[in-house]
Amino acid sequence: MNESAFENLRLELRRGCLVLAVLAELRSERHGYALGKALREGGLEIDENTLYPLLRRLETQGLLASAWRVEDKRNKRFYRLSAAGRSVLAQLLEEWRNINAAIETLSETRMTARRRNA
C-alpha cells in the first residue's frame, strides 16, 4: 500500500475518534483553545482548522451549547455538552467499547491461529 492510501485511511479513522474525544472533553465547559490543548495533552493532535469547524457542526447538530464570555480581558466562546450531547456521548462510548472489544477479539484470534500454524 502506498503512503498516500495509508494516510487517507488513517485520517478517516481519526475523524470519528476526534468527534468522540471532543464530546468526552466537553463534559466540562471549555473554550476552543483550552479544548485543543487538552486533546493534544491527551495524545490527540488536532489542528485549529479541524477543531473549530467540528465544534460548529456539533453545535448545529444540537450536541453542544456555547456562550460568549470575557476571560482574561478577551471574548471567548465556551462550549459544553447539551443534554442531547450527553446522551449521544454515552451511546457512542458504548459503541466504541463494543467495536474496540470486537477488534481486539479478531486480532487475538488471528494471532493465536498464526502461532498454531507456525
What can you see in these coordinates?
With 118 residues, the chain is of the alpha+beta class. The chain has a single domain, classed as Orthogonal Bundle (Arc Repressor Mutant, subunit A). Helix content is 69%, strand content 15%. The chain has 4 helices and 3 strands; from the N terminus they run αβααββα. It has helices at 3-25, 32-41, 48-60, 83-117, and strands at 30-31, 64-71, 74-81. The protein has a 3-stranded antiparallel beta sheet. It is elongated and about 65 Å long. The relative contact order is 0.12. The mean pLDDT is 92.
Summary of the model, kept short:
This protein is of the alpha+beta class.
Layout of secondary structure:
Elements: H1 3-25, E1 30-31, H2 32-41, H3 48-60, E2 64-71, E3 74-81, H4 83-117
Antiparallel strand pairs: 1-3, 2-3
Any key phrases for this structure?
118 residues, alpha+beta, Arc Repressor Mutant, subunit A, 3-stranded antiparallel beta sheet, 4 helices, 3 strands, 69% helix, elongated
